[in-house]
Amino acid sequence: MKKRIRCCVLILIFGVLVLQQTVVSAAEQTLPSGISFDEIGSKMQAFEKKHADTTAGLAVSVFTSKEDVTQYAGYTDMEKKIKTDETSVFEWGSTTKLLVFLSVMQQLEQNNLDLDTDIRTYLPKDFLKNLTFAEPVTMTELMNHTAGFQEEYVGLYEKGITAYPSLKEALYEHEPKQVYKPGTVTAYSNWGVALVAYIVERVSGQEFSSYVREHIFTPLGMNHTAVSVELSDCPWVQKQWKKLQCYTADGEKVKDCKTPLLLYPAGRAVSTLTDFRMFARAVLTKDKLLLQEKTWELLFMPTDDFGTTQIPKNMHGFWMASYGIPVYGHGGNTMGCSANLLLDVKDGVGVVVMTNQAYEEIYNVQMPELVFGTYDRSAYIKEEMIPKGIYRTARTDRRGPFKWMSLSYKMGEVDDSQLWTASDTDGGEKISYAYGDDIRISTWEFVLEIGSVLLWGLTILWAAGSLLVQGAAACIRKIKKKTNFSPFRNWGIAANGMQLLVLVCFIGTVYGVSTYQKWETYAWLFAVIGLLAFFMAALALYGMVKRKNHSWTGKKRWFYGNLFFLLVTVLNIGYWNLYQFWN
Question: How many domains does the chain have?
Answer without folding.
Answer: 2
